[in-house]
TrEMBL record, chain A:
The lineage of its organism: Bacteria, Pseudomonadati, Pseudomonadota, Betaproteobacteria, Neisseriales. It comes from Crenobacter cavernae. Residues 456-471, 571-580, 620-635 have a biased composition (Basic and acidic residues). It is found in: Cell inner membrane. Its cofactor is [4Fe-4S] cluster. SUPFAM superfamilies: alpha-helical ferredoxin, Nqo1 FMN-binding domain-like. HAMAP family: RsxC_RnfC. GO terms for cellular component: plasma membrane. Residues 1-26, 456-485, 533-635 are annotated as: Disordered. Binds 2 [4Fe-4S] clusters per subunit. This is Ion-translocating oxidoreductase complex subunit C. Residues 539-549 have a biased composition (Polar residues). Its EC number is 7.-.-.-. The gene is rnfC.
From TrEMBL, chain B:
Belongs to the NqrB/RnfD family. Keywords: Cell inner membrane, Cell membrane, Electron transport, Flavoprotein, FMN, Membrane, Phosphoprotein, Translocase, Transmembrane, Transmembrane helix, Transport. It is a multi-pass membrane protein. One of its GO terms (cellular component) is plasma membrane. This is Ion-translocating oxidoreductase complex subunit D. Its cofactor is FMN. InterPro entries: NqrB/RnfD, RnfD_bac. Part of a membrane-bound complex that couples electron transfer with translocation of ions across the membrane.
Length: 635, 337
């Protein structure tokens, strides 16, 4: 027997799972319309790659992954795209999301299914790309793209999460009971890709059938089905990892850093469907339970409206709202028209009789029950106090962000204080403040830069005037001819720098949030690269000792131009210096009245000016980089 | 409630308080058995004053009266106070003590959950400081007055004909006096008033409190740390001193069963509102109270000192909580992996 490790806290709410496990997984009927949200992963929403009026087949890609954290979206059934527009979406915010609306043709006809036949022989990166393209994401609720979790350098333990600790939910239980072989095949694929030293499948002991089925399916390989005690939240990845391996994954650390990776059973099932059968994620098992006539599990197409499913299960009168997810961490659907997403593991028709409202809260009596229940080992009553007093600094110091919002504290509180609501509020406030601060920083940086520029321009102008005056005084023909040219050059450089500065500051000040810092960083990196390239080019130019000034290639960017110009000027200055020296030598040799000093002074001046400008340019680049870096750090 | 969790354990503050009152019942029954019905009168007086004071204060503070009266916390305070006061004390004493407890120590701090000091202990401490003589008059278990005579005595201070004094010192008080007079602990404790352990009947009442505490612990309404640590704190000094000089220091069992030690361990240091919330903090708090109880009792000016020990340690609770905050999950020193 494996030694299990306790995790702190946890609660044991009434399970309410038996209601929905009496009948096998049914196939939900195809609704008249499917609303397939493009946002089906932790990352950006997929970009629709079909248009209204298109006919699609089941499994055909309708949304292209947008970025690393995104995953593709596929048509759940065959039919016609009738609209691509924002529609109700399963999120507590109630905000609409872009959905592809499909009118099914009722045939449910698959498009071409191309399994990844020789996946064992392919590089792991190709398999990962394939999975991203098949829309495989974590079905446990976090919808983290699976392909990203598959790349761990070395792994001690692969944990397969079949704990399913939330009350009411039984979709994973039924999946393991009925499709254990596919689940185990999926585990085999993941194990082959990740090469862990051991593979543990954790299942709570209130699912004896699932445990038996999985044990049976695991015969002949070294996967170990581990029975864990039924206690909420043992299905939390960190809690399960702790339970099975004894390792604690601190907040802000990835479990892979500790040699463990965790996948939900439903996720590895979809991995297998994708690789062995070429089937993208077009449906998922959803528990329909609560106040319905026939609580059971269905395999429902992604995009099926939630109220359609609840009606299908027999909505009872008195249902006040529908919850998505479990009663501990789920949320009330703001709009039951929303389509099933890959995260929709459970729908609970809620009536006040089944899940009564919380009685009015009493003051905290500091009983500490919440602290003994908290699996994150926090002091919830202190966090509550700080959140209530809007003392967010203290709340953060007391590890507010370690809170996984499991609700165990609210569950046990005898004063019936909705503790988690306070934490959500505090987190929201802190994020909001962070955003405001970022914006303010950006505004300040922009202001300071403008101030600096104005000062610099003033100084330069003064300097120029002084120079011109000096030149006039000297009235040397050579200087007369060179000065305007110098001025023009300096103006060009200044203009270039200004443009570059404007570009960066404009970027820095752009109001959109998360992407700016990235953009600024990229911009800075690009500027750096450009500067480097320009310097190199300039170096080459210098080396080739071109006296004639090459026309700067059109389209070359300003920084480059400036750098080249600077280099040229340097070269010119050096040449002028040399000439001047030569002239002097000759002069002294030939005893000709020296015309040198004036020329020499001019050349030196020019050289100094160029050097100064170079320094200013470098400083500007550095500042841009700093700004980018700072933004990155703050993220 | 449109945000998770949508389930809540059906425990409420009222239920917690009701169970605490229930756990006090065996102790009260034995108390009445040994000391007479006067005890019940004290409890009734305390309850009525507490509810009235609470209601008046809630009204003055613009709080919902019924909602808070239901929570039962005022009754718990009242009962604990009544059990700490002399059973045949004058009626106004318990009323004044209760008013102090509810009005000053609880409501003026913001009511339930906001009081830093244990209200019952504040009420008791005020009385013993203000009326030391009256507070020292304990109806001895041997004075078997009829219920009616006890009642009359509480309200009128009139004794039935033929009885000229019913009040005697508490066992702790008596021991202290005897020790100053040069008697040895052994001789004093052999007097019949001490019963088997710590005052005739006293040890049975203490055992009944202990049973109540076990019940509450089984119901997960009180932690084991505070009571056990408090008893350990009492014994920590009592045991070595008794071993070294048994003639001058009573044995640890005596101190554990005498006076308000057991009532304190079971029901007073376990008050959630005024105690620490962390397990380690509860150990520290309980142990310190125990040590202080012993030190004040044996070396200090008051014969029984649970109230002072608790109040002193109440001051330290915020610091204890702060210092004992356990590290968050995954943040153990040296890693628990
Ligand atoms: S469980 Fe509720 S009453 Fe008890 S300490 Fe926590 S917040 Fe306060
Ligand atoms: S919701 Fe947060 S504070 Fe409450 S028990 Fe869960 S992790 Fe702890």
């Amino acid at each position: 027997m494996r030694v299990l490790h306790a995790f702190h806290g946890g609660v044991h709410p009434p399970e309410n799972k038996a209601q929905s496990t009496g009948t096998p997984i049914a196939t939900a009927p195809i609704p008249p319309r499917l609303f397939v949200p493009m946002s089906q992963s932790l990352g950006n929403a997929a970009l629709p790659c079909v248009k209204t009026g298109d006919e699609v087949l089941k499994g055909q890609k309708i949304g292209e992954a947008d970025g690393r954290l995104s995953a593709a979206v596929h048509a759940p059934t065959s039919g016609k795209i009738v609209d691509i527009a924002p529609h109700a979406y399963a999120h507590p915010s109630g905000l609409a999301e872009l959905c592809v609306v499909i009118e099914p043709d009722g045939l449910d006809a698959w498009g071409e299914r191309k399994p990844l036949a020789d996946w064992q022989a392919l590089p792991a990166a190709d398999v990962r790309a394939f999975l991203a393209d098949m829309g495989v994401v974590g079905l446990g609720g976090a919808v983290f793209p699976t392909h990203l979790k598959l790349s761990a350098p070395s792994l001690d333990t692969l944990v397969i999460n079949g704990a399913e600790c939330e009350p009411f939910i039984s979709c994973d239980d039924m999946l393991m009971r009925e499709r254990a072989a596919d689940v185990v095949a999926g585990i085999t694929i993941v194990a082959t890709l990740m090469r862990p030293k051991e593979i543990l499948i954790g299942i709570e002991d209130n699912k004896p059938e699932a445990i038996a089925a999985m044990r049976e399916a695991c015969k002949g390989n070294h996967f170990e089905v581990v029975t864990v005690p039924t206690i909420y939240p043992s299905g939390g990845a960190k809690q399960l990892i702790r339970r099975l391996t004894g390792k604690e994954v601190p907040h802000g650390t990835r479990s892979t850093d500790m040699g463990v990776q965790c996948f939900n059973v439903a996720t590895v099932y979809t991995v297998e469907r994708a690789i062995e059968h070429g089937e993208p994620v077009t449906s998922r098992i959803v528990t329909l339970t609560g106040d319905v006539e026939r609580p059971h599990n269905v395999e429902a197409l992604i995009g099926t409206p939630m109220n359609f499913l609840i009606d299908y299960a027999g909505r009872r009168t008195g249902v006040s709202e529908v919850l998505m997810g479990g009663p501990m961490m789920g949320f009330a659907l703001p709009d039951e028209d929303a389509g099933v997403t890959k995260a929709s593991n459970c729908l609970i028709a809620r009536s006040p009789a089944l899940l009564p409202d919380r009685p009015p809260a009493m003051p905290c009596i500091r009983c500490g029950d919440c602290a003994s229940a908290c699996p994150a080992e926090l002091q919830p009553m202190d966090l509550y106090w700080f959140a209530k007093a809007k003392n967010f600094g203290k709340a953060q110091e007391w590890k507010l962000f370690d809170c996984i919002e499991c609700g165990a504290c609210s569950y046990v509180c005898p004063s019936q204080i909705p503790l988690v609501d306070y934490y959500r509020f505090a987190k929201g406030e802190i994020w909001g403040a962070e955003r405001d601060k970022k914006a303010a920083d950006r505004a300040r940086a922009r202001h300071e830069f403008r101030q600096y520029r104005v000062e610099r321009d003033k100084e330069e102008k003064a300097q120029r005037l002084a120079e011109r005056a000096a030149a006039k005084d000297l009235a040397a023909p050579s200087s007369q001819s060179t000065l305007p040219a110098d001025d023009a050059k300096a103006a060009a450089i200044r203009a270039a720098m200004e443009r570059a500065a404007n570009a960066t500051s404009a970027n820095v000040a752009a109001p959109t949030l998360s992407d700016d810092a990235k953009k600024a960083a990229i911009e800075a990196a690009m500027a750096r690269a450009a500067a480097r390239k320009a310097e190199k080019q300039a170096g080459e130019t210098q080396r080739s000792a071109n006296v004639t000034q090459p026309a700067a290639p059109a389209g070359m960017d300003d920084a480059k131009k400036a750098a080249i110009q600077a280099a040229l000027e340097r070269a010119a200055a050096r040449k002028a210096e040399k000439q001047a020296a030569d002239t002097q030598e000759q002069g002294s040799a030939n005893r000709v009245k020296p015309a040198g000093p004036a020329t020499m002074d001019d050349a030196k001046k020019a050289a100094i000016q160029v050097a100064m400008e170079r320094a200013a340019a470098r400083k500007a680049v550095r500042e841009a980089q700093d700004a980018g870096q700072k933004d990155k750090n703050r993220r | 409630m449109t945000s998770s969790p949508f389930m809540a354990r059906p425990t409420t503050v009222s239920m917690v308080m009701l169970k605490v009152l229930g756990a006090l019942l065996p102790g009260i029954a034995l108390y009445a058995w040994f000391y007479g019905a006067g005890m019940l009168v004290q409890i009734a007086l305390a309850s009525i004053s507490a509810l009235a004071a609470e209601a008046a204060m809630l009204k003055a503070r613009g709080q919902p009266i019924g909602f808070f009266l239901k929570d039962g916390s005022a009754l718990v305070t009242a009962w604990l106070l009544a059990l700490s006061m002399p059973p045949l004390g004058a009626w106004w004493m318990i009323v004044v003590a209760t008013l102090f407890a509810i009005v000053i120590a609880k409501q003026l701090y913001g009511g339930l959950g906001n009081n830093p000091f244990n209200p019952a202990m504040v009420g008791f401490a005020v009385m013993i400081v203000a009326f030391p003589a009256q507070m020292a008059q304990w109806g001895s278990a041997g004075a078997h007055l009829s219920a009616g005579d006890q009642l009359a005595y509480i309200f009128t201070r009139a004794l039935p004909p033929g009885v000229d004094a019913i009040a005697s010192a508490t066992p702790l008080d008596h021991l202290k006096t005897q020790l100053t007079l040069g008697a040895s602990v052994g001789d004093t404790l052999a007097e019949p008033v001490y019963g088997h352990l710590a005052g005739a009947g006293g040890e049975w009442i203490a055992l009944a409190y202990l049973a109540g505490a076990l019940f509450l612990w089984r119901k997960r309404l009180i932690p084991w740390q505070t009571p056990l640590a408090m008893l350990a704190g009492v014994a920590a000094l009592a045991l070595p001193l008794w071993l070294v000089d048994p003639a001058h220091f009573a044995n640890p069992l005596f101190h554990v069963f005498a006076g308000a030690t057991m009532l304190g361990a079971a029901f007073i240091v376990t008050d959630p509102v005024t105690g620490p919330t962390t397990p380690r903090g509860r150990l520290i708090f309980g142990f310190s109270v125990g040590v202080l109880v012993y030190v004040i009792r044996v070396f200090g000016g008051f014969p029984d000192s649970v109230a002072f020990a608790v109040l002193i340690m109440n001051i330290a609770v915020p610091f204890i909580d702060q210092a004992t905050r356990p590290p968050a999950f995954g943040a153990k020193k040296g890693g628990r992996a």
